[in-house]
Amino acid sequence: MTETTDLLFVYGTLLGQSNSAMASFLKENSQIVENGFFPGELYDLGDYPGAVFIAHAPTKVYGTILKLTDWENTLAKLDEYEETGPGFVQPNEYLRKIIQVENLSGRFLNCWVYEYNYSTKNKTLIASGKYLKKGNEFA
């Protein structure tokens, strides 16, 4: 049986405070569940971030857990936006996978996440694990 969920964890340009068209699309096609995090590292890739899940990492990636309405169609549109799947250049820059995200109460939820799939060598680590770009600073 294939694992699935209608929850999505967003940490970058898909966050609600982003001005991207896809963030607006998500606002219309999801409900905020709560904030959360997963163990890993967040990198500045220029105009957007990339997160890497690392089990037992001392650092965390922070973001928002969303409940998707019509999750299959919403994920299909997000896959196009993130250019992930067989129809795009391989290897994909991002892979959509299910990971366990911890909410602020300590409960774990299975969520889809777009994980950065390229090398992080020579990429700038965002030590705070939060992508709230203000000028050239990260919160």
CATH class category name = Alpha Beta
Helix count?
2
Give Rg in angstroms: 14 Å
Number of folding domains?
1
Poorly predicted runs of 5 or more residues: 135-139
**General form:** globular
- Biggest sheet architecture: 7 strands, antiparallel
Order of SSEs: EHEEEHEEEEE
Mean pLDDT: 91
Judging by the overall fold, what is the CATH architecture?
Roll
Distance between the termini: 40 Å
What class, by secondary structure content? mainly beta
Return the CATH topology.
Hypothetical upf0131 protein ytfp
Question: Can you walk me through this structure?
Answer:
- It is a single chain.
- The model is unreliable at 135-139 (pLDDT under 50).
- This protein has one domain (7-128): Gamma-glutamyl cyclotransferase-like (Hypothetical upf0131 protein ytfp, Roll), CATH 3.10.490.10.
- Helices cover 14% and strands 42% of the residues.
- The radius of gyration is 14 Å and the shape is globular.
- By secondary structure, the chain is mainly beta.
- Strands 1, 2, 3, 4, 5, 6 and 7 form a 7-stranded antiparallel beta sheet that branches.
- It contains 2 helices and 9 strands; from the N terminus they run βαβββαβββββ.
Q: How are the SSEs ordered, and which strands pair?
A:
Layout: E1 7-10, H1 21-28, E2 30-44, E3 49-53, E4 60-68, H2 71-82, E5 94-103, E6 108-116, E7 124-125, E8 133-134, E9 137-138
Antiparallel strand pairs: 1-4, 2-3, 2-4, 2-5, 2-7, 5-6, 8-9
Labels describing this entry:
14% helix; 139 residues; mainly beta; 9 strands; Hypothetical upf0131 protein ytfp; disordered C terminus; 2 helices; two-stranded antiparallel sheet
